[in-house]
Amino acid sequence: MNRLQPLLNEEDRQAPRDLVEQALRLVGRIQRGSADAARAAETELQRWRQASPAHAEAVATAQRIWNATDAGALADRLPMPLSAEQQRRSRRRVTGMLGCLGVLALAGAGWRWQQPVHEVALRTDRAQTLAHTLPDGSVIDLAANTALQVTFHRGRRTVRLLKGEACFNVAHDAQRPFSVETPWGRVRVLGTVFTVSARDGRMRVAVAQGRVAVWPVADAHGSGAWSSMGDAPPAAILQAGETVEADVRGVGSRASLDVSEVADWKQGWLVFRNTRLPEALARWNDHLPPPMQLLGDDPALRDLRVTGSYPLSQPQAFIGSLPSILPVQVTRMTDGSVAIRVRR
């Protein structure tokens, strides 16, 4: 016989009920809404959470309620989107539900705990790298100036890359897919070695071993709803030695690369193959205290491409080569930074 156990602690049960109800509706739209509705709800929830400490506490309580029930009971009470009449009925149902959540039993095969079993935030500064081993044996190597968040659930492993670049050596676990998400797209894999970067308004994926599937952000079905991804085929499936970029317009065409160039920074090099100049500068700036910057808003400047291999220890070799390979002028500023403009 299953014992009754409270889903919420005493502090949770004291949270203002009307605030928790409002937070629950937003959480429900994120988890169960369409892609557009989920993104809008996530933005609204972030603004609402930051309005006051009480709102932040209500969001935390609502998320625990949703996770603890695996959204099963709440999904029926929070249809998306809600009409005005549905919102009134939903308020009455959720109010009644909140009154008895403290004694609900987690029983039956259809109920699953969705609370994270492991969470960690990792960050590197300029010219700093970091290797981190996860509980499943997967290894994440963070490049310089990188920030990400790792969340493991019982049924999935998720990394949110906030900025920079990371190399993933993923331990195979067919029961827990491994996913990486950025503002411009998402990647899912079962076991492989690959990198994902988030710079200059785009995501770049490069595979050294195995295979990965890539979706543009427009095909996502809400934050954390990775099980829904099977409803839409991936925009690209990459093999070892392939790379692809994604931005707000979607996923681009696959391209080939030498697998030795994947995570080149781990070997002390930066390798560029027809790389946009802004991205090349962004990669260098992850390692340089005085940054390199483009001057002027000339589209031709941003469309320039760079090809070549450069040791990280010798940024001057890259800076000195630019005027000879591109129609640009390089100027050293008084603060030590480097300005690059179109050569007239």
How is this structure best described in words?
This protein is an alpha+beta fold and 344 residues long. Helices cover 28% and strands 30% of the residues. The protein is built from nine helices and 19 strands. Strands 1, 2, 3, 4, 5, 6, 7, 8, 9, 10, 11, 12, 13 and 14 form a 14-stranded mixed β-sheet that branches. Strands 16-19-18 form a three-stranded mixed β-sheet. It has a two-stranded antiparallel sheet with strand order 15-17. A hairpin with a 4-residue loop joins β4 (147-152) and β5 (157-169). The longest helix has 17 residues, at 84-100. The protein is globular. The termini are far apart.
Structure described in brief:
By secondary structure, the protein is of the alpha+beta class. The chain is built from 9 helices and 19 strands.
Secondary-structure blueprint of this entry?
Layout: H1 10-13, H2 17-32, H3 35-49, H4 53-68, H5 72-77, H6 84-100, E1 118-123, E2 130-133, E3 139-142, E4 147-152, E5 157-169, E6 178-182, E7 185-189, E8 193-199, E9 202-209, E10 212-216, E11 236-238, E12 242-247, E13 250-251, E14 255-256, E15 269-276, H7 277-285, E16 292-294, H8 299-302, E17 305-311, H9 315-325, E18 328-332, E19 338-342
Parallel strand pairs: 5-6, 16-19
Antiparallel strand pairs: 1-4, 2-3, 3-5, 4-5, 5-8, 6-7, 7-10, 8-9, 9-12, 10-11, 12-13, 12-14, 15-17, 18-19
Helix pairs in contact: 2-3, 2-4
Could you say which overall geometry the principal axes of the C-alpha atoms support? globular
Number of strands: 19
Q: Helicity, in percent?
A: 25-40%
Mind telling me the C-alpha Rg? Answer: 24 Å
Task: Note poorly predicted spans.
Answer: 1-13, 70-83, 99-113, 219-230
Main beta-sheet strand count, sense and barrel state? 14 strands, mixed
Distance between the termini: 82 Å
Structural class: alpha+beta
Written as H for each helix and E for each strand, in order along the chain, the element string is: HHHHHHEEEEEEEEEEEEEEEHEHEHEE
Oligomer: single chain
Quick check: average pLDDT?
A: 80
What is the number of helical segments per DSSP (H or I, 4+ residues)? 9
**Beta fraction:** 25-35%
